[in-house]
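Please review the protein record below. Tell me whether the encoded fold seems credible here:
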Amino acid sequence: MLKVLSLFLLVLIWCTYSQAQTAKIKKIIDSNLFETDDGRVIKLAGLDVPNLNHPDRYLRSVADKAYVYARSVFLNRTFNISSLAPRDSARDYELVIMQKKYPLGLLDYNKEFLSQGFGRFTGSVSKAFYNEYRDAEQEALAHERGIWKVVTGGSTEVLDRPFSSEEINHYTQKDSLIFMRKPVRKSGLSAGVIISEVILGPVAGFVTALPGAYLVAGLSALDRKNQGWGVLGWAALGAGFGYITGNALGVYAVAHGENPNVSFLGTLTASFVGTAGGVGLATLVYRKDSSVPYVIGFAGPLVGAMVYANLMSPRSEGKDYYSVYQAFTPPVQSFSHKDLYNSTVVYNLNLFSITF
């Protein structure tokens, strides 16, 4: 009977750890080390990803790409997280499978990291994921993505090695600032973000213009004094408000993913200000035989929203990061991520200030 109860408890514990839970990623610590909003430190299971202070310059650049990817895709977003190995005295993080449901299917980010070539498959996952992850690694290897430009398929070198005592001592010295690399992101402006906003803003504007026209026209029709052309005028006004609101909504949907401090109210207000400026400028350059004034008028809401979202909205403390590096020969003694994370050594460099 005692054996049966013990077996039952073991199964119960396993089910508890293996059950998928939802959690939001609130901090990107390293290329494959993240902190959730419930205080857990997690790492994608089955992956050997080079960390940000890897001594090899190229592998360090791959780690930078993985870090930037994680910041743009993971940060402040909620995922389904299944713990394969809980945190214990020998390991200061949990090994997890991280997935997210989208309208077109379920995306597995362990597999995505392997497909991008951010790391090597270690095989330490269950049979349910093994073949899928191995195939993703083989695809990246065949196309020489990421690490596979310099790492051979049969290499056994550990890419995600611990921080050495020499590195930690060096990082605490002021002169290590001479090794500052370029920032991961210096501002919110990027070609992808701008293009997405330029496309999504007007599309959303035209989509919301029709409901706006119907809504305002319907409300105005309740007053029997507003009939015929009067209702049509209200409908045009409603379409205008809908177009402005849609532009703000489209820009906000893109910009908020890059900067959580972007507010919809601020974007909407800027869109109305841009409309006023666009109409004023269109009036000044108006010519009967020219379509330029109309283009300016229609572009006003989009430009106003984009200026606020990308240039005027406040940015979070520590949003711009520098990675500090130098090549070292690791000594025998080394420190884990736990030592680094729980001490004064993990730090963010925001421009030229260091926060311990």
Observations:
- Residues 59 and 151 are 9 Å apart (CA to CA).
- DSSP finds ten helices and twelve strands in the chain.
